[in-house]
Amino acid sequence: MSAEAEPPRRRGRPSRTEREQGPAARERILEAARSEFAARGYDKTSVRGIAKVAGVDAALVHHYFGSKDEVFAAAIEVSFEPALVVPAVLAEGPEQVGERLARFFFSVWENPATRAPLLAVIRSAVTHEAAAKALRTFVLRRLLERVAGDLDVPNPQFRAELAASHMIGIAFVRYVIKVEPLASVDQEEIVALVAPTLQRYLTQA
């Protein structure tokens, strides 16, 4: 036998490559999850389907995230991270806060990277408790509490909830069911019309 002859192949399951493990695999799983949840909703998305799109074994999804509920929460969290800048939006003072908040909120929806997870949670929240819980958790913790904490008006939490419900309702009609002409009108036109209502919610005693 030649010294350069190939060694015999090992039997059994092949070892995982770099592509199948590590931080890159985790990010691919999250990207696949965002895509699948946005397109299919919570109920019709499976861990196996996410794994297939990500190009990994389903066991790796469970390894990183545990359950379907947990991968769902991790997948949508990216859209709510921008809410960390809300205090800065509010810190500029009460003047035109409604306009600044509306522009910030709809800019998150206009960005394809953050829109997909938001579509997933909005579509799924009405039919599945895990999605509804995720929406309540992220919206309340990442957005409403920060808004309410900066409001010097009676019932600040209630006012922040009104503002959020107003914006989420518009987002549902514009981005989920896509009713025209709202679905295709320029973002700035929406901001101009919505901002006075948000201003009233957030600042008028």
Short synopsis of the structure:
The chain is mostly helical and 205 residues long. It is 68% helix and 0% strand. The protein is elongated, with a radius of gyration of 22 Å.
Structure notes:
The structure is a single chain. With 205 residues, this protein is an all-alpha fold. 68% of the residues lie in helices and 0% in strands. The chain has 10 helices and no strands. Helix 6 (97-110) crosses helix 10. Keywords: DNA-binding.
Compile the SSE list and pairings.
Layout: H1 23-40, H2 47-54, H3 58-65, H4 68-80, H5 86-91, H6 97-110, H7 112-125, H8 129-149, H9 156-176, H10 187-203
Shape by Cα distribution: elongated
**Order of SSEs:** HHHHHHHHHH
Q: Per DSSP, what share of the residues sits in E-state strands of 2 or more residues?
A: under 5%
Helical fraction equals 55-70%
Structural class: mainly alpha
Distance between the termini: 91 Å
Q: Give a count of the beta strands, DSSP E runs of length 2 or more.
A: 0
Query: Poorly predicted ranges (pLDDT <50, ≥5 residues)?
Result: 1-15
**How would you characterize the largest beta sheet?**
none
Q: What is the arithmetic mean of pLDDT?
A: 81
Tell me the radius of gyration: 22 Å
In DSSP terms (H or I, runs of 4 or more residues), the helix count works out at 10
Keywords: DNA-binding
Domain HTH tetR-type: 23-83
InterPro entries: Homeodomain-like_sf, HTH-type_TetR-like_transc_reg, HTH_TetR, Tet_transcr_reg_TetR-rel_C_sf, TetR_C_16
Biased composition (Basic and acidic residues): 15-26
